[in-house]
Amino acid sequence: MSANYEKVREYMNKVYETVVQRNPGEAEFHQAVKMFFNSIKNVLIKEPHYIEAGILERIVEPERYITFQVPWVDDEGKVRVNRGHRVQFNSAIGPYKGGIRFHPTVNSSVINFLGFQQTIKNALTGLSIGGGKGGADFDPKGKSDGEIMRFCQSYMTELANYIGPDIDVPAGDIGVGAREIGYMFGQYKRIRGAFEAGVLTGKGLDYGGCLGRTEATGSGAIYFVEELLKDRGESMKGSTVIISGSGNVSIYAMEKAIKHGAKVIACSDSSGYVYDADGLSLKTVKQIKLTEGRRIKEYVKTHPEAKYNNVSSGIWSVPCDIAMPCATQNELDADGAKRLIRNGVKIVAEGANMPSTMEAIDLFQENDVIFAPAQAVNAGGVAVSALEMAQNSSRISWTFEEVDEQLQDIMKSIYRRLRKAMREYDHEGDLVKGANIAGFKRVADAMIVQGVV
Questions:
Q1: C-alpha distance from residue 357 to each of 116, 127, 325, 368 (Å)
Q2: What is the rounded distance in angstroms from the CA atom of residue 276 to the CA atom of residue 271?
């Protein structure tokens, strides 16, 4: 082991210890930083100017973190209070860009990890967007439309002070769909007294939204997997696929996978999973989840040949060629990884944000399972959000086909970027390192030329 390697390792450990000390108890953020640091050692060894410029210390520290009270009144007239967050992590290559998540688990750790990962993901797209993320510990489930509207208006009343088309452009995420974006946009418009279409993405088509945005993350994930397979002289046709979750990402990944000739045999929600060896009916899943908003267990009522299990993590026991965790962070742990490996999985592609634990990733790589990380696979949504921003700026709109064609090109270019980085820094076959290196270099190089700001 070279002295230079030891020097870099000690330096990275010192920076990581500072992250832990400054952000106590933020396990998800610590995990994201550690995984990232593990990927870029060879870059720092070959190019020590990144150390001299203090890039690591700066890239792991958000440029701004905003926490605020969100008071609102429920339907019984009772005052409720939630906590709102927005992290503006890095703006070296463009305005902050990242979703808003409404979920009881939202805290500073979740927001920091998402904002940090968003910075790398957005850089991989090749588009001019920095990294940010936001949300609140509010649960939209069980709330009336009036309660959700009042909460969104209160949240935006404070957030409006920190965002704008050229400053920070939020979008939707878990718990924040077209309804919530509409309420927030209306409140922002009222506060500003102007129609600034580019301040939010994921908007309705009647007021500046983009065709294909709803489908983009799921479709983009499949485009990435297809490009990966094409590079190996293969395709998805005839493959069996399991996809955790049953929200927009999962459903549109299912839809695109089926169009590419794959057979999707299992999906899930927080209550459990369904398995159909002959292939799930996408029409039924859409009806249950998107139209009726019911639990996935309803599937077996109209498809008695399918099986239902009330343990969501049991989905990783289903034998398949391709597994796609598309629900939430750390849903696929070492135990799930062992079950997938035992059953012969060939590819694991992350459709959600950091859905696999570090232990699971290590197991996949040790057992020659192709592992494609969220920073690359999950980038389709933000890519099309950036296309929405472009349309808003030019006051034009593209057809669904035009947007989808650009999405395909972006996902292909992401794969090419990380493949080039893998080879350049002696990490052939390691898609995680390739994605983190490619994203890091683009952000870091921009930071250096802009000075210490």
A1: 17, 28, 11, 17
A2: 17
Q: Note the pLDDT tens digit of each residue in 236-251.
A: 999 999 999 999 999 9
DSSP SS3 for 269: strand
Domain ranges of the chain: 3-59, 64-196, 214-377
pTM: 0.94
CA distance to 34, 323, 345, 381, per residue, from 228 (Å): 26, 14, 16, 19
For 39-55, the pLDDT digits (tens) are: 999 999 999 999 999 99
Distance (Å, whole) CA 95 – CA 118:
12
Kindly provide the b/e burial profile for residues 139-161, where b requires at least 16 CB atoms within 10 angstroms of the residue's own CB.
ebeebeeebbbbbbbbbbbbbbe
Q: Give catalytic residue positions.
A: 133
Fold of 64-196: Rossmann fold (3.40.50)
Do strands 79-90 and 130-136 pair parallel, antiparallel, or not at all (unpaired)?
antiparallel
- Please name the fold of domain 214-377: Rossmann fold (3.40.50)
Neighbour tally for 368: CB within 10 Å: 10
Which residue, 161, 182, 195, is CA-closest to 84?
161
